[in-house]
Amino acid sequence: MKLWIVRHAIAEELAPGMDDARRALTERGRVRFEESVRGLRRAGARFDLVLHSPLLRAQETAELLAPLCHGRLQVAGELAAPPGPELLQLVAGGSVALVGHEPHASALAWWLVSGSRDAQGPGRLLFKKGAVASLEGEPVPGRMVLRGLWQPGVLRKLAR
Amino acid sequence: MPTGSSACLLPERICEELVAARDAVMGDGAPDAVHRLRTASVHALVMLRLSGRRALRDDLRALRRSAARLRDHDVQARDTDARLDTGDESCRAPLLEDLRRSLGAPQTEALLSALRVLPAPRPRATRRALRRMRRAALAAGARASSAPAAGALHRLRRRIRRLRVAHELLGDARPLLARLQDDLGRWHDLECAARAAGGAERRRLARLAARAARSALTLWRRKAPIVARMSIREEDR
């Protein structure tokens, strides 16, 4: 199967008294990620399912990925927490995008590729906001291959 | 936006309605609780449409579908005057158990958390969405009028329900839409009952359903121009 791990696009800064879960994408974040989506389309990305965390910025990022999805958009609370076996149970076959947050996105990618939970170790993956990692294989820790890790600037260049 | 509309449209308010209905199903699980759950999920779906949001719609549809079989059972039991507290309970119990299982799943909790953090819809997005819903209802009406097949009538019924709920959430209830929906609802109930019945009863119910469909479409043809001119007060400014 193909797994696409996506970090949410640029969102509002957390202001004092503001609920972190309610941070929305900024206009700039939205416009830039729309361009990234065009880049992803050019790279051949298509999804059967988009799972996203319940936090507003992940919901809004998942919505921007909807044109590439011919299946469902589905909320998954597991994407707002460190990756665990419950999250992998939601992923079954086809091409699935997971929209989440740091440090969980890089920890998940590293766990699936290396089997190690030490995402801060020497193999740490850098996920900028709006970055996308593409993995292939069986969704079991240590059994997936990292096919690509695209930072947002690269995706936007692909779109042009 | 009319006064009071924003209060009805607030995601927190709609979320509270969903939570209360979920708790009622988990509690006594009475037919009314199941109906409230279905209604609350339609309110949430329409609120998302009015906000121009795509995420969470599939989750809400799944939630609504999970209650569909039990709701159909309850409607049929009510219409055939069956007693829910006698032998019928043995059919209802497993359906209620299924529904409770899906309501107790982590996904329902994630859906509620996701709904809670949504901002109130922006007036511009709301106006655009309402215009789209109206156009969709008119198109479905035109199709149903030219070829009144069950699928077309069913689509028209859903489009009108969506438009009615949207107006209600905006604090601008339209009795005409409720009447159109009632007429199409009568056809739908008879159609379902006919499908479930057998022999002579089936033919009798099918005749009644065909008559109800004709009557609903006659009303629609007469009132469609009024629906086409409908707008919320804010749109007229």
Explained architecture:
The complex is a heterodimer of chains A (160) and B (237). In chain A, 31% of the residues lie in helices and 24% in strands. Chain A is an alpha/beta fold and 160 residues long. Chain A has a six-stranded mixed sheet, sandwiched between helices. In chain A, helix 1 packs parallel to helix 2 (56-65) and helix 1 (27-42) crosses helix 5. Chain B is mainly α and 237 residues long. Chain B has helices at residues 5-9, 11-26, 31-51, 57-66, 68-79, 89-104, 106-116, 123-146, 150-169, 175-196, 199-229, 233-236. The longest helix of chain B has 31 residues, at 199-229. Mean pLDDT of chain B is 87; it is low at 1-5 and 82-87. The chains are: A alpha/beta (160), B mainly alpha (237). Chain A binds chain B through residues 19, 21-22, 24, 52, 54-56, 59-60, 62-63, 66, 72-78, 86, and chain B through 53-59, 106-107, 109-111, 113-114, 116-119.
Give descriptors for this structure.
heterodimer; A: 160 residues; alpha/beta; 31% helix; B: 237 residues; mainly alpha; flat
